[in-house]
Specification:
474 residues, alpha/beta, 434 Repressor (Amino-terminal Domain), Four Helix Bundle (Hemerythrin (Met), subunit A), eight-stranded mixed sheet, 22 helices, 10% strand, flat, disordered N terminus
Length: 474
């Protein structure tokens, strides 16, 4: 029994949706790559009915693919070179791999070229040193400070490093405060100097402090700047010279599209950074930066950031991103996220309770917590092959889970561990405690009972079809 069971999530969602607790509205969203994915799917779908690849059907698909890339804000020159490479490989494969259908073969060729365009493979981050020093640079408003906090949490939890965050934005007092708040929130060290106005001096002092206090990694958050501001660009170059970082990362707002790529090149000409971080990938962005930056700048994308919370940071994997763009999902990343939250001891404990039909509301809360720790629900579902198309027009309000939590938290400890004791008077008290209608409480408890019975039957190997047939609304 896995600690995270998608059937449990399915039943939670079914109840929330059916009882209007999940605020889902159907609207025309344009999340990252949605439009590109649809257009590429259309271009490749036209080949599925053909017996083989020919110059004519290849040319038709290539035209649509190029149009899709340009529409995603990929530079025309890059889009043309990309499609020319796809065309050459497709024409060269006419008499090869006859067992593969034309559509499938073209998808493979497009995916291989897309992976190559985005860098080929995931790039690591260099944190070796005593301590390892990482310099963060970027435009104003690109999300540098938030990323610095996310990276600190990533290195602390996934690399077991003792991290020091350094506030080197001497122009914006709020940035210094923000670094302090983030450091406290994620449990890492912080170095703040509100008197010194030279960022190079502050960074050097922070590194000395880190050495004296046995920190493994120092993350220097620099001030945001404009590429056209020579004085500010000279300043970041001076900071880099003064601290000789192991790694310099350029943070760019992906919502700026092709402008992001142009800015990335301008910064690289000055500070010769080691890698790019794309932020705000959860917004209204067409993905042109992710597809173009490696080609234009020659530097790899190392991380992608998809939200404001400290957990929304991922290592960039070109192959996985290509799979998601082409609608194949990203099951590897999904499994990795699930494994990060997996607790074998807890899983065995739950399995025993389920077999005895003793799964209770406290266990249910624990399952909800595991799901939430994995990240944004819609993003997670998009990682599962075939699910991205089903969920792309759903606007899921994840605060709905807090309503479920409020119901359970309004119960006494005894009621949580003994669901069978919930009589009418107890339900009325719970409804008042969480501010919900009695109807809501009854609906939730009924669904919980059905879910518990279902899991109990599964643990005993009962017939799944018979079981599901008895579920209301199935």
């Amino acid at each position: 029994m896995a600690i995270f069971d998608f059937q449990i999530f399915n039943d939670i969602t079914k109840w929330l949706e059916s009882s209007d607790r999940l605020a889902i509205t159907i609207k025309d969203l344009d999340n990252m790559f949605d439009s590109l994915s649809e257009k590429l799917d259309g271009a490749l779908r036209s080949l599925k009915g053909n017996a083989k690849l020919t110059e004519i059907n290849i040319a038709q698909s290539i035209k649509e693919i190029r149009r899709a890339l340009v529409g995603a804000d990929v530079n025309y020159k890059i889009a043309k070179e990309f499609t020319d490479n796809v065309k050459d490989k497709a024409l060269g494969s006419e008499n090869v791999l006859n067992a593969i259908k034309p559509g499938e073969l073209m998808v493979k060729i497009v995916m291989d070229e897309m992976v190559k365009l985005m860098g080929g493979q995931a790039e690591g981050i260099n944190i070796k040193g005593n301590p390892g020093v990482i310099l963060i640079a970027g435009l104003q408003g690109s999300g540098k400070t938030t990323f610095s906090g996310k990276l600190a949490k990533f290195l602390k939890e996934k690399k077991s490093k003792k991290v020091l965050l350094v506030a080197c934005d001497v122009y914006r007092p709020a940035a210094i405060d923000q670094i302090g708040v983030l450091a406290e929130q994620i449990g890492v060290g912080v170095y703040q100097d509100r008197v010194t106005k030279n960022p190079r001096v502050i960074a050097q002092a922070a590194i000395a402090h880190a050495k004296a206090n046995s920190y493994d990694v120092v993350i220097v958050d620099s001030a945001g700047r404009l590429a056209i501001d020579k004085e500010m660009m000279d300043e970041i170059a001076d900071v880099k010279t003064g601290i000789s970082p192991n790694e310099t990362l350029f943070v760019v707002d992906s919502m700026t599209g092709q402008d992001a790529v142009i800015t990335a090149k301008a910064f690289n000409d000055v500070i010769n950074y080691d890698g790019v971080v794309l932020t705000k990938l959860d917004g209204d962005t067409r993905g042109g930066a992710a597809l173009s930056v490696k080609y234009t700048v020659g530097k790899p994308i190392k991380f992608i950031s998809t939200g404001e919370t400290m957990d929304t940071l991922d290592v960039f994997h070109p192959d996985r991103m290509a799979q998601r763009i082409l609608g194949m999902g990203d099951i590897v990343s999904f499994v990795e996220k699930a494994q990060e939250q997996f607790d074998e001891k807890e899983a065995k404990r739950l399995e025993k309770k389920i077999k005895k039909n003793k799964f209770d509301f406290d266990d249910f809360l624990g399952q909800l917590a595991q799901i939430k720790k994995m990240g944004d629900i819609k993003s997670l579902m998009g990682m599962i092959p075939g699910m991205s198309k089903m969920t792309k027009n759903l606007d899921i309000d994840e605060s709905a889970f807090s309503k479920v939590e409020a119901i359970i938290q309004s119960m006494t400890p005894h009621e949580r561990s003994h669901p069978e004791t919930l009589n009418m008077s107890r339900k009325k008290r719970i409804a008042k405690g969480c501010g919900r209608d009695l109807h809501d409480i009854n609906a939730f408890i009924k669904q919980f009972d059905q879910m518990r019975k279902m899991m109990h039957m599964m643990s005993k190997g009962k017939n799944m079809n018979k079981m599901m047939g008895g579920m209301p609304g199935r």
